[in-house]
Amino acid sequence: MSDAKQDLVDASLLSSSHLTPIDHKSHPLSSWPSIKPNPIGRLSLLNPSITVAAAREGIQVGKSIPIDWPVYHSGTCLFDRPCGQHEIKRKGYGDDEIKRKGYGDDEKQQTDENGTPWIVCYDEILTINTQASSQWDYFLHFSYPGSGVFYGGIKDQDILNRKTGDVCVAALAKAGGIQTRGILIDIPLYLEQNNLPSNPPLVNPASNPVDLPLLLKAVEHFHLQPRPGDILLVRTGFEDVYREDSEKAQVDRHRESAIQGRWYGVEGKEDVVKWIWETGFVAVGSDNPTFESWPVWENAVWMHPTLLSGMGIPIGEILRLNEVASECQRQNRWSFYFSSVPLQIENGIASPPNAVAIF
Q1: Residue 91 pairs with which residues in a beta bridge?
Q2: What does 172-205 look like in DSSP terms, one character per residue?
Q3: How far is CA 159 from CA 5, 93, 154, 252, 306, in A?
């Protein structure tokens, strides 16, 4: 990391000395109370200089690639969570008035009896579970086990009673979204190019666990130099599995609970979590549903409570990374400009990312 890049943030904020001990009874590996909690968490490292540097470096050909799956029926639908519903409502003349005046759905009908142009308009109602498709998990999603503590000491009843103040997913949108550099670690490609056994996406433990040694080797392999303010994206190949599923398999996958699921991801280990913190990653994400390997094995560091409730680091899940990976390989660079503007959901737990990678 160059001194110029290091100077873009306060280096003291990258020290793991801010983190509580791993054996802390309530919130292990937590950055608070050493660093005062704030509504955007680790994203507070971002500043205009980081965004400008990311844009200058990342946007070279102007190609933009969406990262979200659709939010309703043609998107993902997993783990016994309701699929999105999309209702189209016809407005203009009400049904009674249409019947009374003798109008219908005839496209040739252009005016009413007074010669006034007849205008039809449509509204729509979208009902979604923000956990059912591509998403940012925010800091109110997953508590520490046992203590039930969320980010900054927020409790279960605070969330249920909407008493979390500015701490909600809307804070990310109000901050202007997430505008920074994204880096992609493509695990299947790394394994292939290094003649290592492949990791089937739905097998955990994996043949090649995505632990810190592998992550560091992959970073070097893809000629990446992570720096504070980056977003870490890890491709596992989960998107391939979902795309290849038959309709029945997709239905079956929807019916099973997350507890029944199994896939590999980033290993939940203390050194991995501290690397994420010390590097200054402001968010992490993956094409799989959890970022971390699932299920979480005994004695592993559970990354959901640690990153979300402990460090204020959003987790992106079920991201469409295949096209991004293909473009990275085509251009032989694994970094790009990353832009995401979540929804302004007051008291919100999560949001579709509304994200693009721009090359």
Answers
A1: 121
A2: HHHTT-EEEEEEEEEHHHHHHHTT-----TT-SS
A3: 38, 41, 8, 31, 18
Cis amide bond preceding 33, omega within 30: yes
Higher pLDDT, 119 or 60: 60
Tens-place pLDDT, residues 187-242: 999 999 999 999 999 999 999 999 999 999 999 999 999 999 999 999 999 999 87
> Biggest alpha carbon distance in the chain?
78
Start-to-end C-alpha separation, the chain: 22
Domain ranges of the chain: 3-81+129-358, 85-127
pTM of the model: 0.90
**Does residue 3 surpass a pLDDT of 70?**
no
Record: fold of 3-81+129-358: Glucose Oxidase; domain 1 (3.50.30)
Is 248 strand, coil or helix?
helix
Q: How far are the Cα atoms of 172, 225, 231, 279 from residue 185, in angstroms, in the given order?
A: 24, 12, 11, 15
CA distance 196 to 211: 15
DSSP 213: H
Residue 306 has what DSSP assignment? I
Phi, psi of 137 (to 5 degrees): -75, 130
Model confidence at 121, pLDDT cuts 50, 70, 90, reads confident
- The whole-angstrom separation of Cα 164 and Cα 161 is 8
What is the four-CA torsion angle of 246, 84, 160, 140, rounded to 10 degrees?
Answer: 60
| pLDDT exceeds 60 at position 255 | no
Bond from prior residue into 314 cis (ω within 30 degrees of 0):
no
The phi and psi torsions of 285 (rounded to 5 degrees) equal: -165, 165
